[in-house]
Design brief:
Layout: E1 2-8, H1 12-23, E2 28-31, H2 38-41, E3 45-46, E4 49-50, E5 55-56, H3 60-78, E6 83-84, E7 88-91, H4 95-105, E8 132-135, E9 139-141, H5 143-156, E10 160-161, E11 171-172, E12 177-179, E13 182-189, E14 209-217, E15 226-228, E16 232-237, E17 240-244, H6 258-271, E18 277-286, E19 295-298, E20 305-309, H7 315-332, H8 344-355
Parallel strand pairs: 1-2, 1-13, 2-10, 7-15, 13-20
Antiparallel strand pairs: 3-9, 4-5, 6-9, 7-8, 11-12, 12-13, 14-17, 14-18, 15-16, 16-17, 19-20
Helix pairs in contact: 1-7, 3-7
This protein binds flavin-adenine dinucleotide.
Length: 356
């Protein structure tokens, strides 16, 4: 098989890149195992506002404007729904937070995403005496459904090879890459936290942050919005709600723990007053980076090796935009935005040295 690009990984990153190649008429194949689970377990929220500080996420407007029509196209092509427009409301904990909301909203570009009025709490099962603040243009991408539908489609086209990629089997020449029977002009590595095993890019500062989520069944809870206090509750339908998530930068494995479960339930009980049962508990490692920016770019020596990673906790919003930037870098020789480009670390170091 001869392709323009071989993609390693079928999480959100690898699949958004595959879709970008579909939309730009390039040939490709995807090799992936199931060793990483971030896209399988993710809450899938897209929300332009960082709810702790009331600041906008990195390039929120640009990313959202790109991501929404992108997912819509996939939905139309695969005839499946993954994108659910859901309101996100943040419980305000004291009157001072109400003031902070309006102060933040006065900043340039913020009124697009922050509601101009605060909402009274009308959900009896939720404790929110100081009102709720609504973020605009939010929703949830069902990442597990997206992944399974997309992989099904790839399989039907004969473009998905379900196996582990073994790095030392890759034959590299400047013009062509060979992996088994595949010949590719380029390879894009999108292994999530699995990048740690990749000898070509494991020097990059991928930190990782383990996250755990619960699913609860709360038969009396009447709430269709995503509610955020110290943890989120995300309505899934049929009185099921996802609760999460935890952040653990040390135990970077995919095992669920009682400690995380106890923590999530203790936080939930602070604002939820209704009977529920826990019906599921999952864990995954977010591919997070110290400067909270993606890792996109080209290998320094082998110019046909590329990386697409570092989506941390905001993969849904940023993966389509970063995929487009990478596709243009590979096939149109267009420079990557510096904030995404893996060369930023060397550039920063040079600037630091220059200042000495
Ligand atoms: C608990 C939790 C909650 C989250 N909530 C949200 C949220 O609400 N909103 C949001 O936007 N993001 C959220 N995220 C983050 C989001 O999941 C990630 O940003 C995104 O899924 C990362 O996608 P990825 O493709 O880079 O990595 P992954 O999803 O980890 O995919 C990597 C793929 O590569 C494969 N792979 C790895 N190594 C190899 C190899 N050697 N050979 C073959 N295949 C390989 C893996 O098996 C996997 O299929 C959450 C993450 C977690 C863990």
């Amino acid at each position: 098989m001869k392709v323009d690009c071989l993609i390693v990984g079928s999480g959100l990153a690898g699949l958004c890149f595959a879709e970008t190649l579909v939309q730009s008429g390039r040939s490709f194949a995807v090799i992936s195992d199931d060793s990483q689970s971030a896209s399988e377990v993710a809450g899938g929220l897209y929300n332009p506002l960082i709810l702790k500080r009331f600041t906008l996420a990195f390039q929120a407007a640009v990313q959202l404007d790109y991501a929404m029509p992108f997912y819509e196209k996939v939905e139309q092509r695969l005839r499946r729904q993954f994108d659910y427009k859901q309101e996100v409301v943040r419980i305000l904990h004291e009157p001072a937070e109400q003031n902070r909301w309006f102060e933040a909203r006065d900043r340039k570009g913020y009124d697009r995403f922050m509601d101009e009025v605060l909402l009274e709490n009308n959900t009896p099962q939720i404790k929110a005496p100081h009102k709720l603040a609504r973020v605009l243009e939010t929703g949830r991408l069902d990442t597990a459904a997206f992944r399974s539908a997309y992989r099904e489609w790839l399989e039907a086209q004969g473009l998905l090879i379900q196996e582990r990629f073994t790095y030392d089997r890759l034959e590299i020449t400047p013009d062509v890459l060979r992996y088994g029977t595949i010949e590719a002009s380029h390879i894009v590595f999108a292994e999530g936290f699995g990048l740690k095993q990749n000898p070509f890019f494991n020097h990059l500062p991928l930190q990782g942050s383990k996250g755990e989520l619960l699913t609860i069944h709360a038969p009396e809870l009447k709430e269709e919005r995503v509610v955020k206090s110290s943890v989120f509750i995300i309505p899934l339908g049929n009185q099921h709600f996802r609760v999460g998530a935890t952040y653990d930068n040390y135990n970077l494995n995919q095992e669920t723990t009682d400690k995380a479960k106890d923590y999530l339930l203790s936080q939930l009980d602070k604002f939820l007053d209704t009977p529920y049962t826990v019906v599921d508990h999952v864990a995954g490692v977010r591919p997070s980076v110290s400067d909270r920016r993606p890792l996109v770019g080209q290998h320094q020596q082998h110019r046909n090796l590329w990386v697409l990673n570092g989506f941390g906790s905001r993969g849904v919003m940023i993966a389509p935009y970063a995929s487009m930037a990478l596709c243009q870098a590979i096939f149109e020789d267009k420079a990557l935005p510096e904030e995404l480009d893996i060369r930023r670390f060397a550039l920063r170091e040079q600037r630091r040295q220059g200042r000495k």
